[in-house]
Amino acid sequence: MHMTGHSSFAIDVPDALLARARAGDRAAFEQLYRWFERPVFTLALRIAGNREEAQDVLQETMLKVLGRIGEFRGDGSPFWGWLRQIAVNEALMRLRRDKRLAQEIGVDDPSEYAEDLAPLPPAAADAALLQRALATLPTATRSVLWLYHGEGYTHDEIAALMQRTPSFSKSQLARGTKKLRAVLQVPEAAHA
């Protein structure tokens, strides 16, 4: 998984398939489920941090999509963006419900994010390694990091999703990127 900001959700869904799903065609919805199962699960895993919860987020997201697909109008925005928004909201809602976000959110220190936005180390491309590294971060930090690097959300968008300020998003990103780099520093000697 290369964290380039290109979303794994970016799947072009044919209008005909959407129309069938909206009309209640089960086979069409199953097709959508198969296409989006992995991106939703991965997103949920990166935010929630464990597979069981990620599975719950996947199920809840898909149930919501099924129940609300009639509301999707397009209006120039892609279906995958609409579905991803539901997945992100679901994952973050669970964290809020568990009070995990509230406990960790401290006071913003603007000095922390002096444009410390260097790319993640190459080791981040290894999904398993990345998941272990992300698991070492606080929930809020991990969520911001993944939404920014993995999904390409802007700080303004992340702030709206997490009900915080853009400066909160920037400070969490700087903190998380720094920690992740430290965790992912694979010493050269290790390969010898």
Compact overview of the structure:
The chain has 192 residues and is mainly α.
Write a structural description.
The protein is mainly α and 192 residues long. It folds into two domains: 15-98, Orthogonal Bundle (Rna Polymerase Sigma Factor, Chain: A), CATH 1.10.1740; 109-191, Arc Repressor Mutant, subunit A (Orthogonal Bundle), CATH 1.10.10. It contains nine helices and no strands. It has helices at 15-22, 26-48, 51-68, 79-97, 100-104, 127-135, 139-150, 155-162, 166-183. The protein is elongated and about 50 Å long. InterPro entries: RNA_pol_sigma-70-like, RNA_pol_sigma-70_dom, RNA_pol_sigma70_r2, RNA_pol_sigma70_r4_t2, RNA_pol_sigma_r2, RNA_pol_sigma_r3/r4-like, WH-like_DNA-bd_sf.
SSE layout and pairing:
Elements: H1 15-22, H2 26-48, H3 51-68, H4 79-97, H5 100-104, H6 127-135, H7 139-150, H8 155-162, H9 166-183
Helix pairs in contact: 1-2, 2-3, 2-4, 2-7, 3-4, 7-9, 8-9
Can you count the helices?
Answer: 9
Helix content: 55-70%
Q: Strand pairing plus helix content: what structural class?
A: mainly alpha
CATH topology (fold) name of the largest domain: Rna Polymerase Sigma Factor, Chain: A
Q: How many separate domains make up the residues?
A: 2
Strand portion, in percent?
under 5%
Please outline the major beta sheet.
none
List unreliable stretches of 5+ residues: 1-5, 107-116, 188-192
CA radius of gyration is 18 Å
| CATH architecture assignment of the largest domain | Orthogonal Bundle
Number of strands: 0
Shape: elongated
Give the SSE order as H and E letters.
Answer: HHHHHHHHH
Distance between the termini: 25 Å
Averaged pLDDT: 83
Q: Determine the CATH superfamily of the largest domain.
A: RNA polymerase sigma factor, region 2, helix turn helix motif
- Give the CATH class of the largest domain: Mainly Alpha
